[in-house]
Amino acid sequence: MAAPALGNRKSRPFWYHAMWALVSLYFFLSAINLMGGGLKLIGNNTDWLQTAIAQGDNPLIALLASVLVTSIVQSSSFTTSLIITLVAAGQMSVPTAVFAVMGANIGTSTTAIIVSLGSMRIRRQFRRSYCTALMHAIPNVLTVLVLFPLEWITSVLAKPGCDGQAGVGILTSLSQWLASFISLGEIDKGTSPIKFITKPVVSLVSDAVKWVADEAVVLSGLLIATIGLVALFMGLWGLVKNLKGAMLTKMEGLFSKVIFRNDFLAWLSGLGTTVAVQSSSVSTSLIVPIAGAGAVKLRRVFPYMLGCNIGTTVTGVLAATANPTAGAVSVAIVHVLFNVFGNVVWYPLRMFPIRMAKWLSSLAAQNRKHAFIFLAVVFLVMPIIGLVITELFMF
Q: Which of 51, 124, 56 is nearest to 93 (CA)?
């Protein structure tokens, strides 16, 4: 009896796998919004987000706190918009915000890495998925390693302002100069199509949890985020399971011959997808199971991720139009400059970050604990230790 059943499973038509892949994709996207929504619910109920990011004028604190906050709320768009709002309200200086924006670009990489952990059972697939996620994280980390000391050193060497404040770095100066030529009116941000499509499931789960938790906000947020994490892995499992056989063959042809035919189209796809869904967390996480299944070549993933980085700057620009002060516009420009620099520098030198991603993913595939160690050390342990050291000993 077992043999016929197996044969029936293998003979299932293409439309069957396509249908379940779409259903799994829907729950995968809903889970990302659930997880982020639950964590934001906790943050919005307290002032720890604002306190963590706007604590003093210590560049390291601004950078590391932003990494930590973005890693927790799973959205650089949220953190960047928060930073711009704080600057517009006068609660954070532009020079400090510049370092915070850098941290947000590192912290946003956590979502794709978490998604890649869902394929750990299959070594080859996990290696490809983890490598895909690292192609988003590594260029951002490398860009910070270049721009952070450059901005900090130039701010120290710069002459103090006429009001007695410390000098500003090269990125801050450039962004303020560009902001002086730009006049932004308020623009309607619109609604993310992904959020609109997944709203029924997200609202249903959120309302049910809040009712069960008796409106306890922190508990509700934790439960919603936990349900979102579980649903994310379930959706990922369904998506990966159906992305095989005839389905994978057809998708591989579509991606290799059309969407990812060359680096420019791959970059354009990343930019367009991120602008459309208004979330780099979604666009970068979406490519992880697809590349992990082998439908996209790893060398095309890198320009896609660079395109996603450019696309996510649109959210910051829209946030600045809601608070069109000179400082808010300057911070939005810094966000653009940071990611343009990452594109211009690391695409010509792409073999370095790509090889680094492949090396780290091979280590993780051989011993899975390396994946968790990298995630914990880069996005949690180092920011926390850095915050403690700089607060206690340096300033």
A: 56
Show Cβ contacts of residue 354 under 8 Å, excluding neighbours closer than 6 positions.
135, 298, 299, 302
Tell me how far apart the alpha carbons of residues 192 and 195 are, in angstroms, rounded to a whole number. Answer: 5
How many CB atoms are closer than 10 A to CB 203? 11
Cβ(96)–Cβ(54) under 8 Å? yes
The 3-state secondary structure of 164-191 reads CCCCCCHHHHHHHHHHCCCCCCCCCCCC
CA–CA dist 317, 328 (Å, integer):
9
Report phi then psi at 129, rounded to 5: -65, -45
CA angle at 112 for the pair 108 and 115, rounded to the nearest 5°? 140
The torsion angle over the Cα atoms of residues 105, 309, 149 and 60, rounded to 10 degrees, is -10
Helix H segments across the chain?
Answer: 2-10, 14-45, 48-53, 59-73, 76-88, 94-107, 110-116, 123-157, 170-179, 193-212, 217-242, 246-254, 263-277, 280-292, 298-311, 313-322, 326-346, 351-366, 369-376, 382-389
CB 266 within 8 A of CB 307: yes
pTM, to two decimals: 0.76
Q: Report d(CA 255, CA 4) in Å as an integer.
A: 34
Each residue's pLDDT, cut to its tens digit, for the chain (395 residues) gives 444 444 444 556 767 777 877 887 787 778 767 776 776 676 566 555 555 555 556 788 788 888 877 877 767 777 777 787 777 777 778 888 888 889 888 888 888 888 888 888 888 889 999 999 999 999 999 999 999 989 988 888 876 655 445 567 888 888 888 887 776 544 445 556 667 788 888 888 888 888 877 767 778 877 887 888 788 778 767 766 766 655 555 665 666 677 788 899 999 988 988 887 777 777 888 888 888 888 888 889 999 999 999 988 887 777 666 666 777 788 888 889 999 999 999 999 999 999 999 999 998 888 888 888 877 877 777 777 766 776 666 55
Q: State phi, psi for 321 to the nearest 5 degrees.
A: -70, -25
State the DSSP code for 295.
S
